[in-house]
Amino acid sequence: MKRVAELVGIEEGFLARSVKGKITAKTEKQHRQMAIHKRFFTSLALLDLISEVPLKDMTKKYGCSRGQLQSLQQSAATYAGMVTVFCNRLGWHNMELLLSQFQSRLTFGVHRELCDLVRVSLLNAQRARALYNAGFVTVADLAKASPDEVATALKNSVPFKSVRRAVDEDEESAE
């Protein structure tokens, strides 16, 4: 990531000064630098989204709300969709294919291997990951499986939580 940051124009000194609060964008060059750094920060957040980093971890890491992250995710997916249509109209079919897969990843916040599974309407990223880890790699695998196999895979992916207290807890609270 550090190498990519350097390639797009991110400067460590600028970051250090901005963290300390010593940056005020007065000149045109400082405005451009600030814009580059903000775009890079946003791209890191999007990378975490498609890398299946939980939203609660991201809110802490990036100092923003869950709603802001979801809005960013939706905006980026929509923009990727618009560029996909643009590429189609220009006849850039390879670029269209690449961006359409990226749009799915942005929409659902998943790695590429889950794009097929998240097409099922009731599957979110977590359920798709659980099914993938259980061996259901494609929608066809899911269709061939029995309902009991799918239910077992989903049950095993979530830790069991009981609403009832353990016997020891009831005795302690009664005393």
From TrEMBL:
Domain DUF7898: residue ranges: 113-166
A GO term, aspect molecular function: hydrolase activity
Compartments (UniProt record): Nucleus
Catalytic reaction equation(s): DNA(n) + a 2'-deoxyribonucleoside 5'-triphosphate = DNA(n+1) + diphosphate
Cofactor: Mg(2+)
Family the entry assigns: Belongs to the DNA polymerase type-A family.
Natural source organism: Hypotaenidia okinawae
Top-level EC class: transferase
Domain POLQ-like helical: 2-106
Biological process according to GO: DNA-templated DNA replication; double-strand break repair via alternative nonhomologous end joining
InterPro entries: DNA_polymerase_A, DUF7898, POLQ-like_helical
The protein's name in its UniProt record: DNA polymerase theta
Pfam families the UniProt entry points to: DUF7898, POLQ_helical
GO cellular component: nucleus
E.C. number: 2.7.7.7
